[in-house]
Amino acid sequence: MKKILIFSLVVSTLFISCDSEYLDTLPDGATTTDAQLADIAEINPKVLNALLSGVYSSMYTTGSGGTGDHSDFGQKGVDITLDLLTSDMAYTANNYGWYQGITQLTATPNFANNENYKPWRYYYRIIFGANQVIDALGGTNAVPVDQEAKFIMGQAKALRAYGYFYLSQLYAIKYDASALILPIYTDAKSANQPKSSTADVYALMVKDLTESISYLDGYSRSAKFNIDKNVAKGLLAYVYSSRATPDDLGKVVSLTNDILAAYPLTTKSQAAAVLSGTGALTNPDSGFNNVNTPSWMWGVDLTNAINLDLISWWGQMDFFTYSYAWAGDPKNIDRDLFLSIPTTDIRRTQFSASGRPSSKFFDPKRVVGGQRVIETDYIYMRSDEFLLMNAEANAKLGFDGPAITSLKKLLSIRFNAPADYAYVDALTGTALQNEIYTQTRRELWGEGKVYLAMKRNKKGSVRATNHLYLKGQSFAFDDPRLSFLIPQQETLNNPFID
Asked: ∠ at Cα 412 (409, 416), nearest 5°?
């Protein structure tokens, strides 16, 4: 009877919807107590998959950053914000204003602005939900014995590290081991905590992800929605590459080699639309809209049942979706970056003459303003970013040959002929590192990853003439306006932070 009652309790509470206060409920509004969750996990760890799914769903749910803003829809909402801050994405018209304060660089210096609140609340929401799962499995220092429990613990620890990684990138101007940057929570019961040092935050991320990789050994996921061993390796590679000691960079090379052995690269056909003379799409594998694309490592299959519409990444980015990008707030490629792409590079064809990414990201029906309920999928991670990271780490270690080899693997798919990219063979040292960064900007445009590369490579930016605001101005990577402030809500709720 106890087992039946507990199972009924978790099913009913995991899906209760309620208004959530700042960081005080489960990601899906659940109110199950710690003791109840521990009992559930002891009886059947698989039941915790429902709670884990609630954490994952925060990654695409509207309002997961705690606001009603039409730019608040989980990870992909953050991705647009980060791309705009790099200046590689140009806000070229402002009819609705959702990203106005970001592009004007007036929002981030104001701790009371929602743009500082949304990422903070979103990532700590992920962390809180992950901690609920970890607590139910015995706590952060527990070592699961049951195989299913290991798989769940591995995902939860990777999600917690994912949350802390993005917080460490957004809310710190640069890596400084001794700087106090974020409160650390390793369970869901702790009261407010003071800020911990960068070194301590990184130590937790490394520990979590190392354990996650071990626990997820042998895990075969049913959907790319879930984190597996290779996604955990990818997250750990990001952590190491942002800290970037020589030892870290060596580990980045090893981790990315593992990933590249497991996943193919995005093909030339998948990279950009090819249209017939009548404008019909001839390569339906293009569009960055299908989670089943072999190079996609982590993503989510969006369906009618999820019921996303204009408040979505596709709504903000896709000319063929009924929403803001079509109706009056296009987000285009920076004109100078576009012009830097050779005409023999397939990635140049991803953009229209005006700079819209209408042949990189699109609903396959390609009806202007057509897609209303979102069925095109979200991408969170793909193999190509780790080929570039592999090249970057090798170059920073002084291994120019392996760096060039990795870079040319990508360029051989993007260019028409070897002669088009033969120039990279002569590059060494800083020039090679700069080329890898340039190729990262071209390859990962619009995917939210260039901001991370900008910070770890300490690269500045200059806005081209097609930006609506601050055109022609230059920005250092450590310009405070390109990072976020701990939000006012946290200073009001946490007596240790002012």
From this structure: 170
Give the pair of three-digit tokens for residue 181.
């940057």
Q: Which residues pair with 378 in a beta bridge?
A: 300
Please, what is the end-to-end C-alpha distance for the chain in angstroms? Answer: 50
Q: How far apart are CA 144 and CA 211, in angstroms?
A: 11
Ranges of the chain whose pLDDT falls below 70 = 1-45
Apex 435 CA angle, 362 and 359, nearest 5? 10
Alpha-helix residue ranges (DSSP H) falling in 379-497:
384-396, 400-414, 429-443, 450-457, 488-493
CA 437 distance to own-chain centroid? 18
Number of other residues whose CB lies within 10 A of the CB of residue 262: 13
Strands 474-475 and 180-183: unpaired
pLDDT of residue 42: 65
Q: Enumerate helices (H) and strands (E) in the chain, giving the number of each.
A: 19, 8
CATH number at residue 166: 1.25.40.390
Alpha helices by DSSP H, listed for 2-142, are: 2-13, 34-43, 48-57, 75-86, 100-103, 114-136
Q: Where are the alpha helices (DSSP H) in 216-360?
A: 229-243, 246-262, 268-271, 313-317, 324-327, 335-340
Nearest 5°: phi and psi at 11? -65, -40
Q: Quick check: is 301 in a domain?
A: no
Distance, CA of 57 to CA of 51 (rounded, Å): 10
* Total domain count, the chain: 1
CA quadruple 234, 236, 241, 247: dihedral positive or negative?
negative
C-alpha 405: how far from its chain's center?
Answer: 27
* Pairing mode of beta strands 195-197, 89-91: unpaired
Q: Which of 325, 301, 305 is nearest to 315 (CA)?
A: 325
Print the domain residue range for 227: 2-243+460-493
- CB–CB of 117/487 below 8 Å? yes
The pLDDT value recorded for residue 35 is 62
